[in-house]
Design brief:
The protein is mainly β. It folds into two domains: 5-105; 110-198, Immunoglobulin-like (Sandwich). It is built from three helices and 17 strands. The protein has helices at 86-90, 203-224, 229-233, and strands at 5-12, 19-29, 32-41, 48-54, 66-68, 71-74, 77-85, 95-105, 110-112, 121-122, 126-133, 139-145, 148-156, 161-165, 173-182, 189-191, 195-198. The strands form four sheets. Strands 10, 12, 13, 15, 16 and 17 form a six-stranded mixed sheet that branches. A four-stranded mixed sheet has the order 1-8-4-6, with no helix packed on it. The chain has a four-stranded antiparallel sheet with strand order 2-3-7-5. Strand 12 (139-145) and strand 13 form a beta hairpin. The protein is globular.
Length: 248
Amino acid sequence: MRRNLLILFGFLPISAFAQSVTISKVELAGDKVIVHYNLENSNPASNFLLNLYESKDNFSTPLARVSGDVGSEVKPGTNKKIEWNVRQEYGNYKGKLALELRGKVYVPFVKLQNFTTAASYKRGKTHDLIWSPGNSDPVNIELYKGNQRIQGAMSQPNNGAYSLNIPSDAKTGSDYRLKISSAKNNDEVIYSPNFKVTPKIPLLLKVLPVVAVGGAVVALSGGSKGGDNSSNNNSGGDIPTPSLPPGG
């Protein structure tokens, strides 16, 4: 990777008062590009939106295979770090790439309120999403399993509520997540934490009735073969007449 990839780095400053970003170092480490920077601000409680872009797509879309101090709600501080996995993003890429770090004061366009990864999200059912809208721009709400897009509702009103229906034929798994993006601004994207999708009816409940019926069949057939002498002698099915007492 070191011999085949040349990184040129630039920074688009954050446009606000009393803020500055200093790039201290950019390094290649195996398949990763690591960007070290300092983000200074007079108000330590401020949040920032920072995204990394590259020249391959003319700086049009934020890089996805990034981790660290990147994305929404980045706090000011020193020794910040962004790691970009080039191989996961582009495979065995060879050539030159120019990177840009773009940032602005973060005012969330969407902030999920009731979403929790501990909840049970069942396929074939509808789940209510609630969020605090930060503006009136329409939003795209997409469901992903890993890197595979399962479904999406585009240009939905940013009114703070949406009913998410998980397809009944969706595979179960714990690598689902939501992608919510602004329909008017490619920079505004948030991802939910990974969550688990389960069957609508637990497998155990589906199996138990079959076992119970099977057990009943076995019990009945076993009874017919059990060789109970009293039942075999009474083949006609009549109720036996009780014996009379002596002298009766």
